[in-house]
Design brief:
InterPro entries: MFS, MFS_dom, MFS_Efflux_Transporters, MFS_trans_sf
CATH architecture of the largest domain: Up-down Bundle
GO molecular function: transmembrane transporter activity
Number of strands: 0
Radius of gyration: 21 Å
Organism: Actinomadura namibiensis
Helix content: over 70%
Main location: membrane
Structural class: mainly alpha
Keywords: Cell membrane, Membrane, Transmembrane, Transmembrane helix
CATH topology of the largest domain: Growth Hormone, Chain: A
Amino acid sequence: MSTPQAVRRRGRPGLSLATLFLGMFVLGSAELLVVGVLNLIAADLHVSLPAAGTLVTAYALGLAIGGPVLTALTIRLDRRTVLAGALALFALGNLVAVLTDGYGLFLAVRVLTGALQGLFIAAAFAAGISVVPPERMGRAISVVVSGVAVSAALGVPLGTLVGQTLGWRGSFTAIIVLSALALVATLALVPSVPGSGGGAGDQVRHALAPRVLAVLGLNVLVFAALYSALTYIVPFLESVTGISGALTSAFLLAYGVAAAVGSFGGGRFADRNAARTLTVATTGTAVALLALHLVGAVPVLVAPVLLVWGLFAFGMVPSLQYRVVSLAGPGGGLASSLPASAANIGIAVGSAAGGAALGGSTASAPVLTGLAIAVVAIPVSWATGLLRPPTVEEVTEADSRARVKPSA
């Protein structure tokens, strides 16, 4: 069987990571693209805007639930095979969406493509980690995860522009073409990476260990804090800061670029000390949200605050992934899919909390809600920093106990 070291010798790390980045960029763009063309989809399929908005929820549920399930079912397969299969089925699913006139089928496709993105994410992290030395694991993670951040900053606006010009089906056709390109690049540039040893049961036991669940809980809190405020940042900028139109887009683009830079640069901090990075970043996020509330009426100050917020909020993402995979030990293959699921849960919780706050108060209420959640996340991040990966002896003992059958 090929060893990780053999994978590193055969692979071309830079090209492999660039290919995985491309795949994450394409899938991340497809996830959020619906938001930019929601009105076009609703009109074309003859459904209400809330019904069209369910397409976003369906995708998130598919990713959060279906991703780990598909990862567990394919845990023994070569990671390159899984990546290629996920991309091929993803392109096929989006082709069905382009060709259909039925809302129900489109909804089902969104659930499926969300699950396939979750599968791709887990396989991409496993493949990315395998082509670099252990001491560069955090930086490999950051390159892969940056694909999603860049898609939010650039892919979604560009896809929306295409949709407004060529229709929503045109924007989804672009996703299909890019998926095919990513598939070809994956087959050509990503080396073969053996699947994880042990069965799905062994993976589940290690991936859902209490130490891993604790960091996943922190992941939920981090994204809940972020999206409590971010979901309703446009009303905040319009009502509190007093800006609108193109200027609002410029502020959001600045935030998106900062988020992309943070996710890419955060890998170095993850390699140095991922646990400490999480404590510093959660504290920085809370401070940024407090500053946003205090200086929200001053546009010239809001812009740099948004930059700092984006850097801290997404700078910790590689460390979250790093800690989950490290603490899972032998269950790292399955655990790679769980941070994305936790993030989507946090997004749902945060959006709901921010919406509830906005409904009963002013436009600054979601920012304060995010601040409150971020403050709670600070001691949680410190506490999870005390957790350590399982030792070889602990893993052997746990596996031995799991294999002992109870006497009759």
